[in-house]
Amino acid sequence: MSTSRLYPGVPDDFEARIRILPPEEGGRKQPPYNGIRWDFRYALDKPACDYMYSDFYDPLTGNSWRELPLSLDEWLHARLSIFFEEARAFHQKKLRPGTSFYCVEGSHIVAEGTVTRITGLFEPRA
Asked: Per-residue pLDDT tens for 55-114?
């Protein structure tokens, strides 16, 4: 099981590529920092489902990005953890590599993503 470097002890459930939308596409005016917790919504579903912790990282080293604001309108790599333990069974049925999703703030889509790899989603948490 992989553990988030940003949130020690919090296992990640999957990895994804995420593009934070720029303001011209209805996204954020200010770039977020690593560790942002967004509402998660599957691309084909209307309401947001759950909170997800995000740990953006450098794909070459695997190290978390800590201090710098995240880039807008670029594909970034992230490890994500499902916030509510009881929601994991729901996501086990839907999350697969290639699954598209959105990151939502209120009613606004602020980022889009694609699952690249399942990590600890099917492993029990202690």
From this structure: 999 999 988 887 778 999 999 999 999 888 888 899 999 999 999 999 998 888 999 999
How much is the pTM?
0.88
Count of CB atoms situated within 10 Å of the CB of 22? 16
Quick check: 97 and 121 in contact, CB under 8 A?
Answer: no
Calculate the CA 76 to chain-centre distance: 10
Is 100 among the domain residues? Answer: yes
Kindly report the CATH number assigned to the domain that includes residue 79.
2.40.30.10
Residue 1 is assigned to a structural domain of this protein: no
Torsion of CA 95, 96, 97, 101, to 10 degrees: -30
Q: How many domains does the chain have?
A: 1
- State the residue range of the domain holding 54: 14-118
Beta strands in 50-97 (DSSP E): 50-57, 75-82
pLDDT in tens, 28-65: 888 998 888 888 998 877 766 778 888 999 999 988 88
Strands, E assignment, the chain: 14-20, 37-42, 50-57, 75-82, 100-105, 108-118
